Amino acid sequence: MMRDLRSFGSLRRLPGIFMLLVGVIALVVAGCSNDDNDTATLGADISPTNVQVAKNEAIAALLPENVRSSGELKVGVNVPYSPNEFKDSSGNIIGFDVDLMNAVTKVLGLKPQYIEAQFDKIIPSIVAGTYDVGMSSFTVNPERLQQVDFVSYFSAGIQWAQRTGEAIDPNNACGKKVAVQSHTVEADTELPAKSKACTDAGKDAIEIVKFDSQDQATNALLLSKVDAMSADSPVTAYAIARSNGKLALAGGVAESEPYGWAVQKGSSLGPAMQKALQYLIDNGQYKAIAEHWTVQAGMIQTPVINPPVS
Questions:
Q1: What average pLDDT is seen over the chain?
Q2: What pLDDT does residue 37 have?
Q3: In sequence order, what are the beta bridge partners of 156?
Q4: Is 163 within 8 Å of 247 (Cβ atoms)?
Q5: Which CATH code fits 57-156+257-305?
Q6: Cα separations (Å) of 40 from 36, 160, 222, 241?
């Protein structure tokens, strides 16, 4: 599922009761309609990868004493958000974020303990000391930086997809049908602004076709019900990877912003994780994990504590 308005995070992270209500409504709608029952075949989810990396004693020495002595890193996470963090068919939490955190904890000599939580409860739990790290595709923004420190590990933006062999220009899509997941920055901000630019220029508006889930939006593109789709860059890359060659990128990544791991303000855990990630970048494991999950377009070269954001 995609991210919503950048200052607030992701509406896949809506409070549980609301999400349950959305799910019920979606089921009722699905049960009453025959128009959207067609489905296209997507490839299987990508399985986790396990890179080889040894503990680095110098970096591990930077850990806070309570974390180092416990031997564990308590990681708050909210699922699903493919391909970053989601569950496989056996109920295990997997994804790009998980493989990367597994590698970071190897460098630090720790065992990760992934704890599911509501998205809006993770940062308060970091502040309270319940979790050591928040790992849930957090976009770094000024509001969150007032509460926690962030270690940047990825750059995500808006990315369009099209059917392979077709030519869609995200900056000149007037009159086109574009699929999005509802309640996302793409649905609520990006496409309305682009559509308005079209009509202001005397051209046809973009027809914004909204769906409850990203899989539905991808399915609509595969079945030629729309001309393109717009989503967060790792989400789009993952959908393309699972399309068996039927989908391709359309244009470049726009409005990129950093994802970050949340830690307590002033904690030495931040510098420890920053140096552990730099170690993985320098030695190639970071690239291997990103390429495995087909999200290499968002790789960074230098992790930063509290990166500058607007």
A1: 87
A2: 54
A3: 257
A4: yes
A5: 3.40.190.10
A6: 11, 19, 6, 14
Pairing of strands 72-77, 111-116: parallel
Give the side-chain half-sphere CA count within 13 A for 112.
24
135: Cβ–Cβ under 8 A, 6 or more apart, which residues? 75, 76, 77, 85, 97, 98, 101, 261, 262
Give the closest residue to 133 by CA, choosing from 161, 159, 100: 100
- Judge contact between 186 and 1, C-beta under 8 A: no
Give 18-69 pLDDT, tens digit per residue: 333 333 333 333 333 334 456 777 778 889 999 999 999 999 999 999 999 9
Domain 158-255 indexed as CATH 1.10.150.20: no
- Exposed e or buried b per residue across 91-113, where buried means at least 16 C-beta atoms within 10 angstroms of its C-beta: eebbbbbbbbbbbbbbbbbbebe
Q: CA 305, CA 204: separation in Å to the nearest integer?
A: 44
Amino acid at 294: T
In angstroms, rounded to a whole number, what is the distance separating the alpha carbons of residues 266 and 147? 11
Contacts (Cβ under 8 Å, ≥6 apart) of 82: 1, 45, 95, 214, 235, 238
**């050591």: which residue's tokens?**
132
H or E stretch covering 273: helix 269-283
pTM, full prediction: 0.78
Query: Hey, where are the domains in the chain?
Result: 57-156+257-305, 158-255
Which residues lie closer than 8 Å to 155 by C-beta, 6 or more apart? 256, 257, 258, 259, 298, 299, 300
Residue 51 is which amino acid?
A: V
Amino acid making up residue 224: S
**Residue 126 in this model has a pLDDT that exceeds 80:** yes
pLDDT at 269: 98
- Do the domains 158-255 and 57-156+257-305 match in fold? yes
Name beta bridge partners: 72.
111
